Amino acid sequence: MSRVISAIARHAAQRPDTPALEDRTRRIAYRELATRVASLAASLRNSGARTIGLLADNGIDWALADLAALSAGVPIVPLPTFFSATQLGHAIERAGVDLLLTDRPALLAGLPGAGAATPFLDSLSVIRLAGAAVALPPGTLKITFTSGSTGAPKGVCLGREAIEAVAVSLCEACAATTDDRHLALLPLSTLLENVGGLYVPLLAGATTVLLPSAEVGLQGSSGGDPIRMLGALAAARASSAILVPQLLLALVAARRAGAALPAQLRYLAVGGARVSPRLLAAAQALGLPACEGYGLSECASVVALNRPGDAQPGSVGRVLPHAELRIASDGGVSVRGAGFLGYLGEAPRTSDAWVDTGDIGRLDADGRLYLRGRRRNVFITAFGRNVSPEWVEGELLLEPAIAQAAVFGEASAVNTAVLVARPGADDAALAEAVAAANRGLPDYARVGAWLRAGTPFTPANGQLTQNGRLRREAIAAAYRTRIEQRHERESHGIL
Known about the structure:
single chain, 32% helix, five-stranded mixed β-sheet, 495 residues, alpha/beta, GMP Synthetase, Chain A, domain 3, Rossmann fold, globular
């Protein structure tokens, strides 16, 4: 049986009136939560659904739907609200979703085979889909789609045991207690928030506060209002929250401007992308208890974490109890424990097989993990979104004004493009071309800054291979100062 559902039942018996979930107007105690989850789970089982899709803003109803699927043992696909319409359609089709729960039925009404929307919960409607069945790896209970390294992101299939092993480890590592109040700042469709912000507090018998993204200051997937965020943390009396690096940067800027620190805040877990040690040091000096962690969807989220009172800037922390880590001779990091069951449409794998993370790192004598970079071209923005530069470059090259493009954005608040213009194209034409390409991209993949290359990328100047591939390191080196200036200028504009 699910350890999360068992914990809810235990807390319902021992502490029935303790709040489990809260929003601005509602509070659900553990006794009511256990009853409602059991009732909704029965409804899902009786529905005959093969795979459930869940597309909604953060809120109590999102949590109830997710927990009901967990209890019923029905595979569920949390759909990111920041996905484009094309990405949503791709995810729904690839996962074989035949029942959709959503707070935005009009958006999904045009899906092939979609039936009429009918009520399911206070804010959620249910839509039946007549899509084809899809063979999932045995044991699949959750399919998580990351932000995607391309326009068609892969679905990562996870089992209940893996997800809950991570949740139990996190509960121990972050020293969660029944007195905690966690405010979900990231979308619950993000695996990190789903596991760390919902399952961990429920295991501990604590309270999770769930508010719409706009109310906690989150703007799309790539921006934040730090004053509103700090206000939401204070109003919720939050003791913990999860951030991506750019949101931590925003909070640091707000604190430096004199914003008050929420009184009860004891732990801010920061993950999703590399965090600057300088940023962590600045946050801690301002009273923000930020600790960096590391994980990936293929390992059911968190693998390593800096603990309260045991944080080492520059390190992503000690490996969690459920996981095992090894470093190859070239520094490649592999992880075993809580592994995924396979990608949608590909051969299944065993959950205890080693996962090659694509990262390069080292372990120190105390068992702390330090990361040095990634082995592939995919970069991770400061908002924790995976972006393949080739994908964005392909969109840019569809524009007549652009002859060549190289996109950079690792750990940055903005993606910056170095552009080679076609003859006759001036800066105004390039600006319009970038805007046109951005209209076809989700917000996390859009180009936020660009600069005009001094010369074309060629084999002669070392910026192109003989077979026409970009030499990214050479281009980055040639334009590093200008790229960093653009990053800094545009990042200040976001904040």
